[in-house]
Amino acid sequence: MTETPDTANPPDRIGIVGLGKMGRPVGRHLRAAGYSVTGFDPSPEAAALAREAGIDTLECTAALAAVSDLVLVLVGFDDEVEASVFGPCGVIEGAHPGTTVAIGSTISPSYARSLASRLADGGMIPLDVPSARGEKAVEEGTILLLGAGDKDTFDRWRPAFETFCADILHLGDFGAGQIAKLANNMILWASMAANDEALRLAEALGADKEAVRDALSISSARNWALTTRAEEKPIPWAEKDIRLALSEADDLQFPLHVAAAAGEAMKAFKARHQIPTPKPTRGKCR
Question: What is the pLDDT of residue 281?
Fold first, then answer.
């Protein structure tokens, strides 16, 4: 974890767009380290929970950008990123020249490339900061940051990222972080689908499923989803993540046999367990 910023100087001002299961704990870690944190979320419930955690909230992303040196965008979908940044009352309306806009949402690499050029055209500095390891890790401040973008700007904000990350990587130009996150998610969902199918087969054949899981956890089949029992935690984004991968691959005429199968397997898994798939909120400023 980083040290608290020098109290002799005004604290860096950080705005967070999206105050859900990612944005709220990120804001809490930043505040604990001494940063000035302001947030926005179109959900009154999410905004209220953020205020309970000590995060000041504003009524739109333009107002948030106007008082921020770094804007972290932590919403769920490409169109939510678009609305938050370029829509009415969006970040671009309030940001001052040189504002850093860091995209922590999982978005398509194709959209990321166009987003970077549009942010730069608006006088902002784009960073790519998706993460991995799940909700427990963000609550604990131990996520992996898959960073990309201007290296000097990234290093300038590294101390802030260290407040909620255990590992921070800079992978190259803007969009490289999203490519790494796409690869991560393809492997994650394929692993989870394989774990589920194998354990259900073991049980159907008469073995104790938990005993088999324990054995696999120390075998050559060991994987993160298996050992963390990831299937018991909320997994709302599986189809979205796999659709992103399949769409990017379609543009390249690149076959993804395993990802396609994993997508169907995860749909069946979620249907069996009645797990809903989130939809874009399309929230607007009030």
Answer: 55
